[in-house]
Give the backbone structure.
Amino acid sequence: MQLAGRWTQRLRRRKALSLVKAKCRALKEQSTTLTITQKTGLLRTTPARPRMNQRARLREGQSRTRGLIHILATRTDQMYRLGYNTNGLAHHRLHDALALLADSGYEGVALTLDVQHLDPFNSTPDEVEAVRRRAEELSLSLAVETGARYVLDPKAKHAPNLLDEEAAGRDRRVHFYASSAKIAASLGAEVLSIWAGSPSDGLTAGSDDTERKELLWERLVEGARRTLAACEESGVTLCFEPEPGMFIERPAGFVELKERLGSDGEELGMTLDVGHLLCTNDLPVGDAIRANAAHIKHVHLDDIAGGVHEHRMFGEGELDLTETLGALREIGFNGMAAVELSRDSHRGAAAAAEAMQRLRAAQS
């Protein structure tokens, strides 16, 4: 198995090198300069810059070629980036968590803003900048998650939310999202991910109480519209996650939200948690991914057993990980697919390593 793996790696590098050489020949003919877009691993061309001396050109060419070979060699079979959510490393210092994940082979981090990880109400600009620099040093792309349990209320989980009975509570949630968008922008994060929350009576978009449901829809649309405006001002893409047990728990609810938002919701993307599909019976998972390809901009990866909403390690539930990753490749998804094991912080380092092993096995 090790020998086969080494040969596969060599073949990938040879293919990458041939791609580099072909691209460089084309660029030479066009008198253009090669630019590597680190976040996507794609090539683009820009007008040639002023001439440099031979030594400078050689140094720059060697550096870019090495970087391009690495990117292409590691992306031959996938477009998305594998990440890990910091809510599964709640007992680690954030800088330690970043280094640990980079060492484990992850290319991205889904950073859950929380009291111990860049507290959205107490972190200083210097602290945010230090995290941005560290992630850049480790070649980690970032996404910002807002699902911290007690960041707004020390007594009530995930409260207040966009469906709160009190307008002041809904305003606090929107303010939290707007603050998170600013932090995301300062971090250079690609997306900000949110969810609806649960109303006090536990109603969902699929419930029968039409009058009450319409009131909840009005609150959600208003909050989503305000959050979209804050994200647009900060230059961050907003993604919305259907969450089992919350008002919007299925992909169909996300689609209805976009429709209700009208033109204001054109830039809203979906955060698809593949494990949630097992809870809501939106199966097969691969079909659900393909059906929502136009909306998916961020992905959470986890397993689910028996339809119970408890995130588990791959292999402990019914998720077909190979099918899931194959569907993401099939739709050309090029965002972050982040492992979310929020119940595994007590074994965070081991869980991150095991998840990567299982992901690699499913990709091979």
